From TrEMBL:
GO MF annotations in UniProt: penicillin binding; peptidoglycan glycosyltransferase activity; serine-type D-Ala-D-Ala carboxypeptidase activity
Domain called PASTA: residue spans: 692-759
Pfam families associated with the record: PASTA (PF03793), Transgly (PF00912), Transpeptidase (PF00905)
Highest rank taxon of the organism: Bacteria
Entry annotated with the keyword Protease: yes
Originating species: Kribbella solani
CDD domains, alphabetized: PASTA_pknB
Gene Ontology cellular component list: outer membrane-bounded periplasmic space
Transmembrane segments: none
Gene Ontology biological process terms from the UniProt entry: cell wall organization; peptidoglycan biosynthetic process; proteolysis; regulation of cell shape
Protein name listed in UniProt: Membrane peptidoglycan carboxypeptidase
Biased composition (Pro residues): 765-794
Family named by the database record: In the N-terminal section; belongs to the glycosyltransferase 51 family. In the C-terminal section; belongs to the transpeptidase family.
Length: 803
């Protein structure tokens, strides 16, 4: 039995046949009031009738009513509605009483007096049709109409529909037998409610509530007299009396219903006349419920959600079964889409690109620790016209519509950093990294052996210091450093980390290729959703979650949740390793790093640029502890070409880079998405992760080699002199310029520390010492003191005595 089917009680067959024959004798007809010639009916032999009755079905099996499925965003706003029949079932109490009276008045005014077959009504209709030479009046009871609609609703193939609607005696006999069974099991009110929920009211509106909302913008409970009369008149011929396409015919039919209601004393003459004077429809109030993702505000996200639903085995064994179930089961599908963050992504796309560009832009944002895909946007709009596309550039090619990614360049270096830290290599680890490195024929270990490239001489796209640390190399995106680092630790640990973080080829669904250039990103095609989710794992301190777009599914029929794959979160990196990656990638966002120009706000940010060979695509991926995002700008028209020279944001690109081209798309999207949220910081990385298990080195710059060596020996290190040329330094010639390892990096206890000796080339020559000029000293004039006069002395003739 089909899910949701109900089976009526089995009434006595003999009694039912007796009722059937009695009614047939009274009415002189077996038909339910459709155009059956009387002579044809009379020509049906007793044997034929017996054979038909012998195989009468015992009960009516009904299929579940097709209901529309609604896809909701995280804030419960509607993303899309999916349906084959736009229907919202209601109870009797949710239908206006005047609507119940109107439908009974025009379709079966003796509905509450007769049984399964209205013998009087059938005979009256038959006689009128016979005298007029055509079909002027139907004689089917509402119960019989309900049976016919149920059989059509149950049909799944064109052949089944034909069998349910064929104008044959056998079908009419079967319908009557079903109607008898239905009348025995259900009350009149229940039959009427089911009929109104099943009936078609035109313009893709099934059921009374969907029709009321479509034509009048009110629920069935709020229908007034003229509205109810119009809908009651529609069921006879929904297309012919369509109030949108044929308003005059619709009004004429509505007025017939109103006059019939007056004849039956359901309404007064004044009520009928007042209703007749009203317009049949207000076009401004007509509400269209579009179906499908093409009509969604977020068509690409919607299609991705539907693809995930179709992959759910709870909805059927085959894709067709699942699709039919999704469009008829009446589901409420809640998703992870955050309208605020989605608006941020769309604003960024519109700000930094244009729909008619040759190069395309796409950005996705994922919540760390949950895998919830909060937003996805792209520059090329949805559609089949020129400049439009049905491809979703944010997702994998595992379903129709998924573009399948772009090469992601140096954003892969993040996984090399994680693998190196797992191998206890500190972030201060230095490697001599020339601008060009010959790796031709050099062996790289893989998970299954070794691999090499016979002609491989990679180079750096940026300048860096001669012996960068891991942090220095990440800030400058130094290719030759990370290639040597990946060769030292092996490709297998890096590929394992990447796979654990959900990285695979989005075009083939296979693992990424382990080749010497693995760390540079030429290993497969990656999507923004995939990369942002992988980086979200670093933000979540090593907790990986599969990307999630469907958060819950509820059945409107049962009001129960339906099982759906939820977040699958598990630890793939230790918190310490993830903290170390965050520390390194945070330095990329600082002054001197390739991500410095897209840093914003007060929260800690981490990120990495990515550029692939021949500039087929450029990337920027980055995150805070609350949100991760990845943006790509690339050529989406195979075969991919260099985007330099292509039109992007309305003008030809003269240059292309992860920081300058894709970076602004990421920056604007993330900045707007995080707006209003509290600032956040990364957990501080352990000192052993940053520097390894090391001791501090003393400051030796400017000391003589002998004094420096003595100090190192005293601290337990093994000093050696550099045997190369003296180095350019601002330290005096012949003194220590720096050490390897560097003083700020430290070194393990007992480690060899090489003293690099300065040639003094950058030392500032002190100015010559000039002794200060001493001005001549003039002895002061001393006035002799005034003394008392000595006794008379000819030398002092003027001495005054007696004072």
């Amino acid at each position: 039995m089909h899910r949701g089917e109900r089976r009526a009680k089995r009434p006595n067959v003999v009694g039912s046949v007796f009722v059937f024959l009695l009614v047939s004798a009274l009415a002189g007809a077996l038909a339910a009031g459709l155009a059956l010639p009387f002579a044809g009916l009379a020509g049906m032999t007793t044997a034929a009738a017996h054979n038909s009755v012998q195989y009468l079905p015992q009960d009516l099996q009904t299929a579940p009513l097709a209901q529309r499925t609604t896809i909701l965003a995280a804030d419960n706003s509607t993303i899309a509605t999916l349906y084959q029949q736009n229907r919202t079932p209601v109870t009797l109490k949710q239908i206006s009483p005047i609507m119940l009276k109107a439908i009974v008045a025009i379709e079966d005014d003796r509905f509450y007096q007769h049984g399964a077959l209205d013998a009087k009504g059938t005979l009256r209709a038959l006689l009128r049709n016979k005298s007029s030479g055509g079909v002027q009046q139907g004689g089917s009871s509402i119960t019989q109409q309900y049976v016919k609609l149920s059989l059509v609703n149950k049909a799944r193939t064109p052949e089944e529909v034909k069998q349910a609607t064929n104008d044959t005696y056998e079908r009419k006999i079967a319908e009557l037998r079903y109607a008898i069974a239905v009348e025995k099991e259900l009350s009149k009110n229940e039959i009427l409610t089911r009929y109104l929920n099943l009936a078609f009211f035109g313009d893709r509106s099934y059921g009374i509530d969907a029709a009321a909302m479509h034509y009048f913008g009110v629920h069935a409970a709020k229908l007034n007299l003229p509205q109810a009369a119009m809908l009651a008149g529609l069921v006879k011929n929904p297309k012919g009396y369509d109030p949108i396409d044929s308003p005059k015919r619709a009004k004429d039919r509505r007025d017939v219903v109103l006059r019939r209601m007056h004849e039956l004393n359901i309404i007064t003459a004044k009520q009928a006349q007042d209703a007749i004077k009203t317009p049949v429809l207000n076009p401004a109030k007509v509400q269209v419920v579009p179906s499908g993702c093409a009509n969604s505000r977020y068509p690409f996200y919607c299609e991705y959600v539907v693809a995930k639903l179709k992959a759910n085995p709870a909805f059927g064994k085959t894709t067709d079964e699942r699709e039919n179930y999704i469009e008829t089961a009446g589901l409420v599908v809640r998703t992870s889409l955050d309208p605020k963050m989605q608006a941020a992504a769309e604003t960024s796309i519109k700000q930094h690109s244009k729909a008619g560009d040759q190069a395309v832009a796409a950005v996705s944002m994922v919540e760390p620790g949950t895998g919830l895909v909060r937003a996805m946007a792209q520059s090329r709009p949805y559609g089949a016209k020129k400049g439009q596309t049905a491809y979703n550039y944010n997702v994998e090619k595992s379903y129709p519509g998924g573009f399948g990614g772009f090469q992601n360049g140096s954003t892969m270096k993040a996984f090399t950093i994680a693998a190196a830290i797992e191998k206890t290599i500190p972030t201060t680890y230095r490697i001599n990294s020339p601008q060009t490195l010959d790796l031709s024929g050099k062996a790289f270990s893989t998970c299954n052996g070794t691999v090499s490239d016979p002609n491989y001489t990679p180079k750096n796209s940026t300048k860096t210091i001669a012996d960068p640390s891991m942090v220095d190399a990440a800030k400058a995106s130094t290719n030759t450093y990370f290639l040597q680092l990946s060769q030292q630790i092996g490709l297998c640990p890096i590929a394992t980390v990447a796979a654990d973080l959900g990285m695979y080829d989005a075009q083939t669904m296979k693992p990424l290729k382990q080749v010497p250039s693995f760390t540079l990103g030429s290993v497969g095609l990656i999507t923004p959703v995939m990369l942002s989710n992988a980086y979200a794992t670093f933000a979540a301190r090593g907790m990986y979650c599969t990307p999630v777009v469907v958060t819950s599914i509820t059945s409107l029929k049962t009001n129960k949740n339906i099982s759906t794959p939820g977040p699958n979160c598990h630890r793939v990196l230790s918190p310490g390793v993830a903290d170390g990656v965050n520390y390194v990638l945070n330095q990329v966002m600082q002054n001197g790093g390739t991500g410095a120009k897209v840093r914003f706000g007060s929260s800690d940010l981490a990120g990495k640029t990515g550029t692939i060979n021949e500039n087929h695509a450029v990337w920027f991926a980055g995150y805070s502890s609350k949100l991760a995002g990845a943006a790509v700008v690339g050529d989406a028209d195979p075969p991919a070409k260099d985007i330099i020279g292509q039109v992007f944001n309305g003008k030809k690109l003269k240059d292309a880079s992860g920081s300058g081209t894709a970076g602004p798309v990421w920056e604007t999207a993330m900045q707007l998405a995080l707006q209003g949220l509290p600032s956040s910081k990364f957990v501080k990385a352990d000192d052993k992760v940053i520097r390894g298990n090391v001791k501090d080195l003393p400051y030796l710059k400017g000391m003589t080699p002998a004094d420096a060596a003595a100090k190192l020996l005293q601290l337990g290190f093994k000093p050696v002199m550099s045997h190369g040329d003296r180095v350019d330094s601002d330290a005096p010639n012949g003194t220590v310029a720096w050490t390897t390892p560097r003083q700020e990096d430290g070194a393990p206890e007992g480690a060899i520390v090489t003293l690099m000796i300065s040639n003094g080339s950058k030392a500032k020559t002190p100015p010559p010492v000039t002794p200060p000029v001493t001005p001549p000293v003039t002895p002061p004039t001393i006035k002799p003191p005034t003394l008392p006069c000595p006794p008379w002395d000819p030398r002092y003739p003027k001495c005054k005595r007696g004072r």
